[in-house]
Amino acid sequence: MSIPTPAPADRFARPIQGDGARARVLHYLCTTARGGIEEHVLSLLAHLPARGFRPYLAAPPDLLRQMGPELTAIGARTIAVRRSSPWDFRDAAVLAATLSRERIAIVHSHLFVGSMFASPLARLAGVRAVVETFHLPEVWRMGKRLKRSFWLDRRMSRWVDRYVAVSAAAARHLTDAKGIPAHKVRTIFNGRDLSRFHPAAAAERRQARAALGLGLEPAVLLIGRLEPQKGHALMLEAAVVLKPMLPTVRILFAGTGSLERELRARSDAAGLTGTVNFLGYRPDPEVLLAAADVVVLPSRYEGLPLAAIEAMAAARPVVATDIDGIREVVIDGSSGLLVRPGDVHGLARAVERLVRFPMAARQFAINGRRRAERHFDVRRQVEETISLYQELLSPRRRVGDTTGR
Questions:
Q1: pLDDT tens by residue, 306-326
Q2: What are residue 278's DSSP bridge partners?
Q3: Strand (E) or helix (H) holding 345
Q4: Engineering a disulfide at 84: which of 34, 117, 258, 298 sits with its beta carbon 3.0 to 4.6 angstroms away?
Q5: Which structural domains are found in the chain, ordered by start?
Q6: Is the pTM of this model over 0.85?
Q7: Under 8 Å between Cβ of 216 and 246
Q8: CA distances to 189, 202, 376, 377 from 5, in Å
């Protein structure tokens, strides 16, 4: 994969001129729990005001409450939209009225289900440009003949001006599997704030570990929603194998989700009480990363995982599954170790290796930070997204022109 040369720092601060300076951008989320996609959206919203755009977020009320403090700090206006069903006419009317009343210039939806609801409404309301971000494979469609044909996606693409793919693999899926025209697809890698996620000083690390009740024992961290995608069950199996190798190891699960009760029960049944700690949702992943020795991503599928980017930015070595999305972030043998999906023993051995050989782990951490600086700075993500918005708002482009010319 070829990644463009990083933009000079002064490019990141360039103000928006012309039409963009008055543009109102509404992001739409149909999800109800806070995770990587929601953090992705918050990062974009946070940078829009400084670039002359007015940020809006339409999302379910539960999600708006979870993101409330950050949205208030950003100054983003919010619209409560309870459902993403195309047949929910009440919420459709609320969103359509908002788009018209607020003179929204760009509607930027996330995930196909969200775009299926918001994109036609945006076009019918006269919004100038419609964008959809494709974050990760839609496993709910697999095994369903009509849904996995992507016929509806191609039909819906008439409403969408541009698709943002968060990884090269995501871009290939859009064009090769879904049949979206290549001229509509723009690859923009996820990024994180590298001043927030940074290598921790010794005192910072000691304080973070003390806050988690850690002494000298090795700490393995998994940040992610407690959902099947993230592979917590696999990590529990690997913990059983790992425990005899590293008797004092502590494994930290940071996140909430539908599997919490099941995972707690499985942990207890496997004799991992006291080894595996469930931390719940944490708004301070940078503190957890400062305390961790190894970060694990045993995911079944990913788009471009923020947790891996954050770990590398914080100079933490990573063990992850060798799948699309992850392998575009973590380079095996350089910034971390990749193992086959579902390989319990391989996962345990990789974690043990990084704990037992701290010099190798340290070199992985250094390489990971360099890679994050080179490719995954949030300023680059914002710059490329702003450039896309400018292109779509160009006076030379007619409203509804989705040809890419």
A1: 999 999 999 999 999 999 999
A2: 253
A3: helix 344-356
A4: 117
A5: 9-191+378-392 (3.40.50.2000), 202-375 (3.40.50.2000)
A6: yes
A7: no
A8: 13, 32, 12, 12
